[in-house]
Amino acid sequence: MSASSESFAAASAQTHRDDTLTICAISVLAAIVSNVLHEGVGHGLIDLLTGAKSGLLTTVAWSSATNSHLVQAGGTLVNLVAALIFWIALRSARSRSIAIRYFLLLATAFNLFTGTGYFLFSGATNFGDWADVIAGLNPHWLLRLSLVLIGIVSYFASVLMIGIGLVRYVGVPRSQQARLRKLTLISYVTAVILASISAFLNPLGIQLLWQSALPATAGGQSGLLWLQYYISRKIESRQTAESLSRNYIWIALALVLGISFILILGRGITLHL
């Protein structure tokens, strides 16, 4: 980058003032989508479609009388498929507003980090979805080691992918480090707070707050905290994004769905098929 280009980028960074409330609102909606896809579709719906009569759905778990390897793996698999769909949508959304592009980016990130993070988490701790998937299979130590290795490689690749998306498709130049930090840090903190509050109300036991909700969110989404440092200098913005201004539609939608997520799904609902 030339000196004049650097000066322009620095000046441009000073003119952007992304609205914090709107960042939080979009983060809430993206986090809800990822959670419902994982627990509701990946675990709950697959379980109901494969034999379960009913089950309890909360923000931290799906509980029913049945249990299968497919149901345990379903949450991760649905998250990964959803991440691919959101990524394709993001790449096709160049003419859309920055709010929509940012939502698609976060929806991709939350689904992708949850999906790949579970491999590493279950392999390292022998707890969670993929620990149940490999339970009883031998050699168990090799399967756990494989999960850890797959998790490390796929999670780091996901971090690189989201960094590319944030710069190239959302339109935040790599040179605007403060702006990148704001857009990722606030979304991370928002997701952790939402998951913690909703998990605290779950009827399956407070232990799921630190056994499931916090590892899946605080740990699983931690790539948002450091992805900006791994964005290649070769990645350039296709367009420079305008400021994310305050949008009361996103904020109102986040309030309605966020409160429902906490008070209804957080407490748990029984589903039948």
Describe the structure.
The protein has 273 residues and is mostly helical. The N terminus is likely disordered. It has one domain. It is globular and about 50 Å long. The protein has a three-stranded antiparallel β-sheet with strand order 2-1-3, covered by helices on one side. Helix 2 crosses helix 10. It contains ten helices and three strands.
**Overall spatial form:** globular
Structural class: mainly alpha
Write down the overall mean pLDDT: 92
> Could you give the distance between the termini?
58 Å
The arrangement of helices and strands along the chain is: HHEEHHHHHHHHE
Low-confidence segments, given as residue ranges, are 1-14
Describe the main β-sheet briefly.
Answer: 3 strands, antiparallel
Total discrete domains: 1
Number of strands: 3
Helix content: 55-70%
Biggest sheet: strands side by side, in what order?
2-1-3
What is the C-alpha radius of gyration, as a whole number of Å?
19 Å
How many distinct helices? 10
User: Proportion of β residues?
Assistant: under 5%
